[in-house]
Amino acid sequence: MARCRRAGRRQPARRGAPVVRDLCPARYRAGHRERVHPSDVDHFPAQQPARRGRGPCHLAPSCRKAYRLCRPVCGHHRFIFGRSACRCRRDGFDRADISSPVRLSAPLPKKVRPRPYLEDHGENPLVTDALYDLTGKRVYVAGHRGMVGSAIVRRLQREGCEILTADRAVDLREQAPVRDWFAANRPDAVFLAAARVGGIDANDRYPAQFLYDNLMIEANVIDAAAQFGTSRLLFLGSSCIYPRMAPQPIVEDALLTGPLEPTNEWYAIAKIAGIKLCQAYRREYDCDFISAMPTNLYGPGDNFDLATSHVMPALIRKAHEAKLAGDAALPVWGSGKPLREFLHVDDMADACVFLMRHYSGESHVNVGYGEDISIADLARTVAKAVGFAGDIAFDATKPDGTPRKLMDSSLLRGMGWRPSVDLETGIAGAYAHFLEGGARTVSLSQ
Fold first, then answer.
1. Quick one: DSSP state of residue 387?
2. Residue 301 is assigned to a ligand binding site
3. pLDDT tens string 43-91
4. For this structure, is 267 an active site residue?
5. What percent of the chain has pLDDT over 70?
6. Residue 317 pLDDT more than 90?
7. How far apart are CA 315 and CA 306, in angstroms?
8. CATH class of 138-435
9. What is the pTM of this model?
10. How far apart are the first and last CA of the chain?
11. 4, burial (CB in 10 Å: exposed 0-12, middle 13-18, buried 19+)
């Protein structure tokens, strides 16, 4: 007898049937790159008549979902941890060749080199159709007034769903009003984009606010979503969750492998807790909650307050004011040597909707542009877009932060998503939005 870890029950091992020792179907679908011990998954029959109300392997519902994804293509419900999810794909069959379930005469290989989940979008049948359709769903965007939340709202307008938002009276840091709102509105899906955010200076001056506020927001929203039957939730983190000296480009597995950057560790710890909370609710309560880790974002609706903003909006505002004042130089914090990756917020919103529709897994997913740029070159690019012709003056007495942060987004790109806004075009659009009066200012107080 063999046991499926996700199913929590034993399955009959039929004599002479092929043996698959790599991964439970539900865990393959979830995107786990860890190998499961052979005692956890020993046998999935090559073919067995379906029974009413139960999958062919007598799996729990979470496992049957993965089975149904593959069966319409080839009839097989054996999954391996390799380039393709099913043997028929590797053997050259396609949908037209398979009209009925097929029984393989040879067993699958027992040892397959692990690869990232959905590495080859063109060959993997698991991403041919969306896992979750947003059409007609009630979708709550937490933090809809912020840069990321407002971009997600704009993107969702093309999905045919009902967009839900909460007014300012609902303080997400307080559990009671959050639960009352969820009880009254019962959203089907949630994008958790609400957060206390800021740059190096704000993180250094207000560590308690960054840690406490973000912990409370994510804990209250995630718990309420689980309590009131939300089907899907996407939690938005940050690239600062990774160690200061993480190998570049940074893969998802780099989480918790080294010390954090001291200048933003309070925010990073809160975001790591949010990732782990989603994973914990998935394991204990079978909640389909996922996490996305964006790189540095910019675009319409950004915060241009110099005391609390990130590097991109700060440079845009400084360059604009220097141009108006006729200054000879643009002041820039640090040495200008650190390397950073930037992604337009509209691309981030598109990636969030893509993940909500196509991804279900415990591992968080990096969302990046794929290229980085030094702060010095970024300052020159911003100055050119703004029209400032002076010099760049670096203040070496100010902190640089992490030396380099470039995300490895191969997991997301393997699913078929790509960014569409290049850096120069995005900066020009952000500056135009700033001139139109669309800039936000966020102040923090002790």
1. T
2. no
3. 333 333 333 333 333 333 334 333 333 333 333 333 333 333 333 333 3
4. yes
5. 69
6. yes
7. 9
8. alpha beta
9. 0.69
10. 61
11. buried
Distance CA 147, CA 240 (A): 18
**Does the annotation place 276 within a ligand binding site?**
no
Catalytic residue among 28, 117, 267, 281: 267
For residues 362-390, give the mean pLDDT.
95
Task: Show me where the domains of the chain are located.
Answer: 1-129, 138-435
pLDDT over threshold 70, residue 263: yes
Strands 339-344 and 372-374: antiparallel
To the question of whether residue 331 is assigned a binding role by annotation, the answer is: no
Residue 358 annotated in ligand binding: no
Q: 400 a known binding residue?
A: yes
Helix (H) or strand (E) segment spanning residue 348: helix 345-358
Distance CA 282, CA 6 (A): 11
Question: For residue 112, what are its two tokens?
Answer: 């397959």
Question: Quick check: 141 pLDDT over 90?
Answer: yes
Residue 139, judged by CB atoms within 10 A of its CB (0-12, 13-18, 19+), counts as buried
String of b and e for 95-129 (b: at least 16 CB within 10 Å)? eeebeebbebeeebeeebeeebbbbeeeebbbbee
The beta-strand segments (E) located in 310-353 are: 329-333, 339-344
Please report, for residues 2, 12, 88, 164, the alpha-carbon distance to residue 79 in angstroms, rounded to integers and kept in the order given: 16, 18, 11, 38
The annotation status of 410 as a binding-site residue, yes or no, is no
Q: What pLDDT does residue 16 have?
A: 44
Mention every residue, 6+ apart, whose C-beta is less than 8 A from residue 37.
none
A 10 A CB-CB count for 334 gives 18
Q: Does 333 show up as a binding residue in the annotation?
A: yes
pLDDT digits (tens, 9 = 90+) for 145-185: 999 999 999 999 999 999 999 999 999 999 999 999 999 99
Structure letter (DSSP) for residue 407 = B
Neighbours of 294 (CB within 10 A): 25
Per mean pLDDT, which range of 44-53, 311-320, 367-376, 428-437 is the poorest? 44-53
What is the token pair recorded at 157? 């307008």
